[in-house]
């Protein structure tokens, strides 16, 4: 029971902070002999910089990193992403569209953060108008 709780806490923290790698507890136990791997001397790279594994974690991690670095509102970024991709909801967008959006967002945040914040706030105003 304690291991399950530890795994759940680790998974929640990993998802909350956008970390693409799992904890040792999530992997499970290993009963075979431990032999040093020739690759074990490499310094581990952050998940954001590792090769994409086809399941979208790298893109999500990069997006979360941009949101945290530039202190952006995640829900407004999601609305902006759907609008940028030309879809009603973000889940309808293709991987390529999302990849293009993330590149655009990173460049926009780097070059004109204030302009990006104004643009994101326009989505907040649209939300309030729609709710009224």
Provide a descriptive summary of the structure in words:
By secondary structure, the protein is mostly helical. It has a domain at 56-131. Helices cover 61% and strands 0% of the residues. The chain is built from six helices and no strands. Helix 3 packs parallel to helix 5, helix 4 (74-85) packs across helix 6 (113-131) and helix 5 crosses helix 6. The model is unreliable at 40-53 (pLDDT under 50).
Layout of helices and strands, plus pairs?
Elements: H1 2-16, H2 24-27, H3 57-69, H4 74-85, H5 95-111, H6 113-131
List keywords for this structure.
132 residues
Overall average residue pLDDT: 76
Biggest sheet statistics: none
Rg (CA only): 19 Å
Number of H- or I-type helical stretches: 6
- Please write the string of helix (H) and strand (E) elements: HHHHHH
Give the beta-strand count: 0
Class derived from helix and strand content: mainly alpha
Oligomerization state: single chain
Helix content: 55-70%
Distance between the ends: 48 Å
Instruction: Using the alpha-carbon principal axes, give the shape.
Output: elongated
Q: Ranges with pLDDT <50 over ≥5 residues?
A: 40-53
Which band does the percent of strand residues land in?
A: under 5%
């Amino acid at each position: 029971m304690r291991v399950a709780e530890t795994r759940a806490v680790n998974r929640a923290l990993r998802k909350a902070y956008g970390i693409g790698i799992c904890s040792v507890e999530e992997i499970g136990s290993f009963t075979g002999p431990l032999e040093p791997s020739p690759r074990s001397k490499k310094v581990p790279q952050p998940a954001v910089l590792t090769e994409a594994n086809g399941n979208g974690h790298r893109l999500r991690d990069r997006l979360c990193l941009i949101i945290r670095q530039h202190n952006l509102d995640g829900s407004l970024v999601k609305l902006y992403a759907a609008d940028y991709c030309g879809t009603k909801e973000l889940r309808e967008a293709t991987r390529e569209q999302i990849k293009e959006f993330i590149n655009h967002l990173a460049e926009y945040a780097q070059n004109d953060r204030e302009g990006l914040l104004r643009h994101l706030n326009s989505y907040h105003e649209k939300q309030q108008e729609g709710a009224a």
